[in-house]
């Protein structure tokens, strides 16, 4: 049995409560990460191959164990070549440098503006060079998202670079059934919209969302950030993203108050819910890929190179966000739906999958669609599991949802109490042995209780008061 270690926040088979998923940040700050890591898990799992999640951590000291226990390390990545990711990229390079097993990168991308100007990436060029060199010492080629990243690496002198897109769209192998179920959208159509904080705050997406919200009563915003989810579930406004009040996941936004916002901590529920929608659009590439996997037409509002190159490669319907923001009518869902041409996306999918398959073969990886059951066992196992629904806004009248929140907080306080008791015992033992305090024990994390009061106290009081009226 071949064993593959997969860089991912969690195994697709791990069922966590919403509270635990948010506490551990298994989405690695962005739920889109789980879309492509779950797809990679399914694709690589065959009767002869076991796939194990590494929990997204990069523990350089674990290299010897990884060499001993696994036959390959597979690394699905998104926009890893960006300045804010450089520290993590360096740690990943250090780990890879200590591995003796094959290391295969699936779909890494560079991020810059729509002009494809790589100048902002110049300061981190050495880090990118060292990462690619380490990977190519352990694989036949490196898989990139699209044309911009391919040229970016070739300009550095790397030749073993292949455009393979993102594994997320290959979740069902050669099959991709996306079609328009309506001849045109009406005012009562079910529409999903998505977007990042930067697109809302700096690129004009807030005006597009506001206008769409006013016209389409069945609009739902699907967020992806961990801060989005914590705002919905805990009303936690401690993250800097909370300053963007125009984001529908903010408690002050009308869509929040109307309950028209979701965030998903499992791709399976995300995709399943989008099956009932008529159309999806917005600046989030994996938010719209989730819709396409559900068979729902989607249009991406491209705001940077990472979304643009992927849309061009897969022929996903798209328009430039900067142009759409200047003309709000250009981003009206009725117009976007009418203009969305799905023929290239669907018609060219099998050829793109074959290219992806050849990349896997070249790098010694088998896939379930060629060497297995096409993912049937994976899907059967997933259907037997009960995943939590999408995270909803915590409105003042939502008393029924308090039990799970308080139950989880109570368990955390209990664990902390037990941990603190053990610490006190160990401290007393050390004091007796040395007759003095040899170390400072970390302050007990009593902030959990105080944070619980701060986070839930005010909404709870409002909820109870409204219940008495």
From TrEMBL:
The keyword Coiled coil applies. Residues 92-301 form the Polysaccharide pyruvyl transferase domain. Residues 413-440 form a coiled coil. GO terms for molecular function: transferase activity. Keywords: Coiled coil, Transferase. This is Polysaccharide pyruvyl transferase family protein. It comes from Streptomyces bangladeshensis.
């Amino acid at each position: 049995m071949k064993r593959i270690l997969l860089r991912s926040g969690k195994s697709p088979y791990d069922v966590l409560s919403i509270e635990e998923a948010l506490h551990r940040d298994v989405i690695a700050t962005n739920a889109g990460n789980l879309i492509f890591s779950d797809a990679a898990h399914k694709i690589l799992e065959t009767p002869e191959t076991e796939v194990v999640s590494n929990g997204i951590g990069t523990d350089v000291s674990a290299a010897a164990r990884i060499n001993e226990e696994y036959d390959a390390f597979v690394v699905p990545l998104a926009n890893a070549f960006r300045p804010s990711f450089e520290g993590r990229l360096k740690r990943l390079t250090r780990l890879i440098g200590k591995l003796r097993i094959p290391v295969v990168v699936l779909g890494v991308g560079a991020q810059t503006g729509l002009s494809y100007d790589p100048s902002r990436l110049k300061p981190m060029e050495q880090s990118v060079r060292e990462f690619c060199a380490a990977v190519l010492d352990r694989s036949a080629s490196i898989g990139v998202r699209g044309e911009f990243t391919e040229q970016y690496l070739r300009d550095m002198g790397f030749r073993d670079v292949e455009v393979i897109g993102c594994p997320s769209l290959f979740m069902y192998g050669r099959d991709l059934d996306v079609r328009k179920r309506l001849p045109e959208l009406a005012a009562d159509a079910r529409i999903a919209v998505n977007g990042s904080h930067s697109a809302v705050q700096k690129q004009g997406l807030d005006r597009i969302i506001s206008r769409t919200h006013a016209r389409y009563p069945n609009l739902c915003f699907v967020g992806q950030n961990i801060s989005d989810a914590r705002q919905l579930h805990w009303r936690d406004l401690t993250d800097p993203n909370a300053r963007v009040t125009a984001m529908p996941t903010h408690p002050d936004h009308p869509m929040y108050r109307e309950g028209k916002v979701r965030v998903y901590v499992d791709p399976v529920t995300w995709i399943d819910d989008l099956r009932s929608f008529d159309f999806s659009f917005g600046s989030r590439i994996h938010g719209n890929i989730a819709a396409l996997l559900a068979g729902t037409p989607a249009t991406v509002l491209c705001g940077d190179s990472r979304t643009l190159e992927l849309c061009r490669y897969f022929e996903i319907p798209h328009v430039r966000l900067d142009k759409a923001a200047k003309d709000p009518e250009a981003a009206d869902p009725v117009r976007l739906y009418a203009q969305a041409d799905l023929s290239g996306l669907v018609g060219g999918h099998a050829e793109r999958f074959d290219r992806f398959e050849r990349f896997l073969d070249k790098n010694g990886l088998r896939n379930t669609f060629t060497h297995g059951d096409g993912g049937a066992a994976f899907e059967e196992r997933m259907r037997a599991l009960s995943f939590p629904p999408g995270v909803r806004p915590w409105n003042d009248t939502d008393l029924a949802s308090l039990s799970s929140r308080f139950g989880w907080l109570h368990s955390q306080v209990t664990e902390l109490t037990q941990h603190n008791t053990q610490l006190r015992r160990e401290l007393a033992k050390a004091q007796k042995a040395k007759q003095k305090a040899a170390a400072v024990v970390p302050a007990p994390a009593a902030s959990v209780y105080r944070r619980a009061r701060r986070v839930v106290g005010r909404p709870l009081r409002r909820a109870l008061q409204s219940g008495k009226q």
